[in-house]
Design brief:
The complex is a heterodimer of chains A (520) and B (1057). By secondary structure, chain A is mainly alpha-helical. Chain A has 17 helices and 11 strands. In chain A, the strands form 5 sheets. A two-stranded antiparallel sheet of chain A has the order 2-6. Chain A has a two-stranded antiparallel ribbon with strand order 3-4. Chain A has a two-stranded antiparallel sheet with strand order 5-9. In chain A, a hairpin with a 4-residue loop joins strand 7 and strand 8. The longest helix of chain A has 26 residues. Chain A starts with a helix and ends in a 28-residue tail after the last helix. The relative contact order of chain B is 0.13. Chain B has 12 helices and 51 strands. Chain B has a 22-stranded antiparallel barrel. A 5-stranded mixed beta sheet of chain B has the order 10-15-16-13-14, with no helix packed on it. A 4-stranded antiparallel beta sheet of chain B has the order 3-2-5-6, with no helix packed on it. The chains are: A mainly alpha (520), B mainly beta (1057). Strand 1 of chain A pairs antiparallel with strand 31 of chain B.
Amino acid sequence: MKKILIIILAGFVFSITSCTDQLNQYPAGELSIDNYYKTESDAITAVDGIYAILVHSTKNTPLYGDQILYLNDLASDYMITGSNSNSPETRAISTDSYDASNFEVQCTWEQIYKGISRANISIDKIPNVEGSQTLKSRLINEAKFLRALLYFNAVQFWGDVPLIEHTEYSADKLNRAPVDSVYSFIIKDLKDAQNLPATQTDPGRATSGAATALLSRVYLVHSSLPSANVTDDLNNAVKYASNVISGGQYQLFSNFYDAFDPAKKNGKEHIFSAQYSVGQESGWAGNATAHCVWSTYFNGQTPVLIVSDTTLFYKSYAVGDQRREGSYAKQLYNPSTNSVYVFEIPRFRKYIDTTNVLAWYSSAINTDIIRYADVYFTLAESLNELGGPDNVYNGISAYNALNEIRRRAFREGKYSINSNNPSPNSHDLSGLSKDQFREILQKERYFEFVTEQTRWFDLVRWKKLVQSIKLIPAKSSVSIRNYRFPIPDSERKLNPTGLWQNYGYTGSTITTSPYDVTYK
Amino acid sequence: MIKVLQKYRRTGWSLQKIGVITFLLISSLTICAQQKKIVVKGRVLDDKTNEAIIGAAIKIRGLEKEIQIGTVSDVNGNFSIDVKSFPVTLSISYLGYQGQEFDIYEYTVPVTLYLSQNLNSLNEVVVVGYGTQKRKELTGSISSIPDNLLKQPVLSFDQLIGGAVPGLVVNQNSGQPGASSTVRIRGGNSINGGNEPLYVIDGFIVYNDNSNSKTSEAKTNLVSNADANLNLLSTINPSDIESVEVLKDASATAVYGTRGANGVIIITTKKGKKGSNNVSYQSTFGWSEIAKKPNLLNGQQWWSLYKTIVPQSDWKDPSKDGFDPTKTFDWVGAALRKGLTQDHQISISGGDAKSRYAVSGNYTSQDGILKNTGYERYSFRANLEKDVYKNFRFGINAIGSHSKQNTLGSLSNDNVVNTWVSLLRSSPVVPIYNADGTFNYNNPFSVNAQENALADLLTTTSETKVNRVLGNFFAEYKILPSLTAKVNLGTDLLGSDQNYFAPANSGGGRQTNGYATKGSKTVDSWQSEFTLNYDKTFDNIHHVGALLGYTFQRSDMEYSEAISTNFLNETTTYNSLQSGSASTPYSGAQTDVLISYLGRINYTLLDRYNLTTTLRADGSSRFGSNNHWGYFPSLGLSWNANDEKFLKGYKDLSNLKLRISAGSTGNQEIPAYLYESTLEPQTYSYGGTVVTGYASTITKYNPDLKWERTAQYDAGFDLGLWKDRLTLTFDAYYKKTSDLLLLLPVQAATGYENTYSNIGAVSNKGVELGLNVQVIKSKDFNWSSVLTWSSNKNEVLNLGGLDQIQPEFPAAGALSTVYPTIVKPGLPLGTFYGYQFAGVVQKGDDLTKIAAPSWITGYTAQPGDPKFVDQNGDGKITPEDKVILGNAQPKFTLGFNNSFTYKKFDLSFYIAVSYGNKLYNALENKLELVNRTYNSSAILANSWTTTNASTTVPRAYEASTFNMDSRYIEDASYLKLKNLSIGYTFPFRVKGVDNKSSLRIFATAQNLLTLTKYSGFDPESSRVGNSSYEQSPLYQGVDYGAYPSSKTFLLGLNINL
């Protein structure tokens, strides 16, 4: 009987001592942040997950497949919602009458921070992954590039925004941080990202060129802020833009259309784009912007996004400027009727896959984030602001930079159709004052970047947002408050004081406009 | 006895042969008359414990009233008595036991007589957590399910226990044989967690999660397509159950710690008895039929409605399109049948001085009232116990079963959510069969090319098969007479398979040219339990009981599922998924570990003052590393006041006990791994090459996540009058559950959208009353009656800053757009929320004043339109005009259980009442949405027209938007005659068998009568369309096409040898 007692006691002691550690159970069938980030492959797929935020959305359209386009282009002067827009949220963006409860504003905010969080996790976890140091550094720098890009969008839309730098952070980090600290962080990330390789095996990954090009744009935008040291910023913008150009890695396509040809994606002019391919996503089988500009097909209805005023915008191109037909489709071939359909109001063309017009839902056209043309613009604008159109850096003047763009637009010089017999550079600019040059450059930026997520940022930088948008009667409710987007109500509900509201929106405690007289 | 057993062996175990034996046994009844004086020897035993009863009085009852001779049983329970003639009646009595009389017809071997403890006696021993206790010494609120209900022939024991004890509410969600029920003890505590009680089956702890019979991932409804889950309680043969105790207050449940908050139901299976061998066989046959017929439009009414709503140019033509508007084709009738039921039980039990055994086998099958549905079970049980030494015994309890359920197929069609609704909605003018008897697949009104709801029902297979082995081994060692050590090792092995096949011409397979799935899931649990029990009385004044224990439980769940479509040949169905095109298979796994230390002290002073205190520490893997461990204390006090001197004078008062208890329990039934941040695949492409990346889901991890905690306070009394012929139990309680798990939004800057937090609170308060009366107690006629009444008030106290939650009804067709329920502080769970119907617009009404429904674009009012109350007076009907429309929780429930015996006749009936509960009749809501494709509710025959200015039924027009309003929130109070049973017992004896033998024949009717205002099929129905949510507290009170309930008639016989 003693035997039995001993056995019972032994069993008891054994089970008590052996079991306590079993309380730590992890999901066997799912990846979790505790059983992931271990191998090189984990590191790669984690960074792929950051890229995915550019083209995926959990509850609305993707960031670079509508959201940023809405807040940027649709909220600006040239774009408006068409008859097919059934969303009051989108229409409120279009008429600049949105408030802090606007779903599009909320979703853009949420998407941006999801991406930042993914980048933070990768940047913090990848150093501990087993694997090649070169690969790990590269992946971390790609994550930094993406984090900078997302913060750059956020700081332009909202001004002061929460600056989350790591996976773990103190609660006060969820409050809005001053604009300048956000910019310093962006610049730090981009300088690290400049260590990326110039070219990547996988087309579409961030490169050193992308980091440098974005850095020059960041400095240019920062130069317009009240706190900026304008000369330093512009000098930096010039320096980095010039570095990209002198590197010789990128070139403008001779044919403007080629920049939006799905067969020529990630070509010589593309510095960084959100990548789309057919069938990559379950909800949208391709670039969702194609839906918004082309969902009505061949009929009199207008799609969700349409040009606001054809006289002011579509018809403002000079004769021979191929950017008009590259940006707008007045007519399209309809394969189902075997005829050409002429639209009363032209459609935005860049995202329509003209090789397969009937399948807008599977448009595999990338959304350009930085195109080489933008580097010329940044250089031209910065040089002009520093010393006028003749201002030269590293052998290139503001004129040279902008004329490069115009020569391609009119297919002159080396961009001629017949390169053996180049056309004269008859559209080159010269003899302009600093102000005249600025005026023309601003128009040129519109001609060049229709539907490329830059118009609202430009109008804000140039401090002419209200006066430009006011020209469109449907957007007459625009006012000085629209220089910033409101912090979404859904966010402020969770942190009302730390996420104080921007001027002019319900809930804001700022009673006098923070925008000085130069904002028009 | 041995002879009988040998006979069985020779003839095999076939059921027909058992019937033959039965007949032979009856015919071999012998009644002898002998004149010799004979010494009858025997033994008196307790029928539950098989312990000898010492000092029982044995008397011979003569024809006259006075007792002639008497004797007393000795220390081993043995007695001998002189008998003059046979037959003779021995009358046995002993304090605390029910007096009994035994007829002896002849005497060859010593007889064994059993006495049952008097149920009303305070010496009754009650099963409590990890042990037993005398009822007199209890401090907690514990009720036992009455014996006569446990004996009823039901498929699953939970079918009859609702209301059988105060505070226990059971809802039979569906008429599908083997379907699950929702069981609530003293109301629901949780919003997102489980609310089902904990079951302890022979010491093995089981949380009855019926989704364990569902093989697909809980989040999706991808595989299975079974419209209902198999009720895992039905895997236990109810006839194997000896007793069911319901533990309600914290003093009773806190010993189960983090799993005790929803109450505990302890099930003990039948054990063998010392000193006798018992064979019993029971067989029942019967049928079920639909309890209530649907009320739909007939062919002519439907055709006339069709012509009203469809422009004449679009009318289908009877001569060309193959339908007949002059006839009514009864689709429902063609699908219904009398479902046959049969059940066979055999059990053999007994024991000698040192060992006890009980084995049983069962086969039961119940056809559903809808064709191609039903339930079947094979089960066995073996309980063995052996006293190895005076102070050491061990035993084994094992239950094994195989259950198979055929259910309706669930359809992903908004208008016909399952094959039953598909039948209800089939146009009555369309023939079911072609002239040649084949199915008519040509429904000209259908949007699909081919459609025949009856064929769907008959050709679609949706089956769930569950194999379960539930068993434990225990060994008990008495270290000292007062100190016992016990080891209990148990396991619950559960394996489910689900097969589904819908051919290409059926509703479930049409879109994919055939649809087949196979899923399997195993949930294997292991439990080891070590306890030390101390029990001693000092100086006849202090009685001390103490328990110390350690338990470890681990549960591993794995599942896999595969889907295939586009079958070129349908012969192989789901047995050859490779014959179709298979999509990506799924699999998953989950592990739960619970480690616990527990302790309890019972102290009784002077047999009058009782104290129970418990403490349990639980370490659970369900929670984040910061919160593995939780501590759950309780304290209960009771006072047997009737034993005080000042009450001794009241002779009528046989018991008065005052009880009070308080304690804290937990609920860990939340989904696993919520404390973890999981990653999900996300695709991207590099230059057209698609890659898969991983990124966090939208839900932020919370390492601080812990159990939900319920603090419960209970005060009550037990009153017994006239030697306990009348007993009354009263309890009042207050429960506050806090740290409720809620999904709260988080700031987007965190990178997530929401996180689970322990932040909400819900309260339940209520009173319970149980009245037990032996109304008539005489030699020939007995009537006992149990009445229970309970009332619970539930209230959501706090949602962690959220104003309200409107649960989404996922994958539930039309329900996913109406949000019929609301969870809001100040309101009970199960509150309905919608528009208030305000009648029908009449001619002459000012049409400009009719508030326009926001869901109709360009609305212009016209006579016959439905009106809704514009609560905020803004001239529009918008979601802001939704109001509270009632609640699914009853104001009170009542159970009334009666049993009568008259000589050898017995009769019992059980009535269950629920009052004040409402139900959202979503099916009726859908059936009244006028549509040219489907049949509709008969109410629409009374639609508003200029000549029939109905005030409640709007004009017939084709509406597409599905909305919920107050018309469909119906009073679902009910009175149900759940069970009526009548029987007659023939006592007999078999030569050479010393046991009391009997043959009982009986007839039973279940669900015979329902009185209710509810217009749907059954006021207990609940179906939201995703079987994962059957037991969820958020989705109760919605009846959207549940399997119709039936009434059942059974005939049976029971032989005891």
